[in-house]
What we know:
about 325 residues; alpha/beta; 5-stranded parallel beta sheet; 15 helices; 11 strands; binds adenosine-5'-triphosphate; P-loop_NTPase; ATP-binding; transcription regulation; nucleotide-binding
Amino acid sequence: MDCLEIFLDMIGTAGPMEQVRRLMSQVAGTESTVLLLGETGTGKGLVAKSIHQSSLRKNEVMITVDCAALPPDLIESELFGHEKGSFTGALERRIGKWELADKGTLFLDEIGEMPYATQAKILRAIQEREIERIGGNSTIKTDVRIISATSKDLAGEVRKGRFRSDLFFRLNVFPIVLPPLRERRQDIHELVSYFLKKYSEKSGRKVSRISSKVQKKLLSYHWPGNVRELENLIERSVLLTTQSVIDEVFLPVGYQKEGLKRNIGKVKTINEVVREHILMVLTLCEGKIAGDGGAAEVLKIPPTTLHAMIKRLVIKKVYER
Ligand SMILES: Nc1ncnc2c1ncn2[C@@H]1O[C@H](COP(=O)(O)OP(=O)(O)OP(=O)(O)O)[C@@H](O)[C@H]1O
């Protein structure tokens, strides 16, 4: 079976997603630890689920721990569980997610948010394949496959001393980088069709396509929230439209200005462009301004005007030999 058949819920088969699919199909059937890297909403959760569903553990559970959603003081208890009375508030014994994931897959989402002190315990649990409940006095053997994900630059976090290098190397055995949507705009069309179908069916409305005006808008937007943002937009638009074609979408106000702002530093001023052009022509004309074959003739302006411009734009006589 090739990777196109396996990951059916994942849209995007060409360009950067082809590589992602290839890596997924290479690693899914192994026991290898996988690290998913990518901006928010690029599909890391979906990839983790797809890998689990194509793995040897597919009939076992996949348990997710969102490390960013848990307060640092609760994360260890969430992961490893605790015994009754092990700390104030531990009224009952609690089985942690690591234990619950036994024989299956444990998906550690936003691993970059893991408190430094807990990172050592995670490393130990992965390496020794055993855990200890908080307040417990025995170790518990576990058989867990780890998939972790982060939207942070984890290597950078290691350099800054915020993430343990030994854990990073242990997690980074098989990294898969999910490209942002703006770098795979060729998938937008297919994603839109997929979400239109999904949300039309869900809402009972018959919305079958988007207008070409909307398509242009979607193709030029920079998608900071990636596929999740596109999905939410289509869901909202399906609910708002009264026709079978979506003819308007509401992207964040000022997004075009934002795009412009990001490029503004790179835009040349008129004077810079004119100056460069005059310099280029002067170089071609070997510094000759007036007369036959002079720069003024080439530029179709009087030599006096060209002289004035050279003075105003402070063009040094670099072109003179
Ligand atoms: N290639 C894709 N095909 C279809 N749906 C996708 C694709 N990529 C992402 N999605 C959908 O987009 C939404 C966001 O994806 P997901 O939650 O996997 O992103 P994420 O990278 O884990 O985000 P975060 O870092 O915020 O947790 C989900 O509903 C997911 O099903």
